[in-house]
Design brief:
alpha+beta, two-stranded parallel sheet, 3 helices
């Protein structure tokens, strides 16, 4: 999960991280910045494949 923020708000970032966000990106950002962030998150050791991230109850 990646959140996008208009301004640097530490409280919002911390709430999002507690809810499962893996990172944030400040607006405005361009496509190359977004793609690089996705690559970084995808290669993170704690990333979970989407197929295994949630199991049906």
């Amino acid at each position: 999960i990646l959140i996008s923020l208009v301004e640097l708000d530490i409280a919002s970032i911390m709430r999002a991280k507690r809810a499962g966000a893996q990172g944030y990106l400040l607006k405005p950002f361009n496509r190359p910045q977004l793609l690089e962030r996705f690559r970084t998150l995808k290669s993170a050791p704690d990333s979970v494949p989407l197929s295994n991230s949630r199991k049906s109850a």
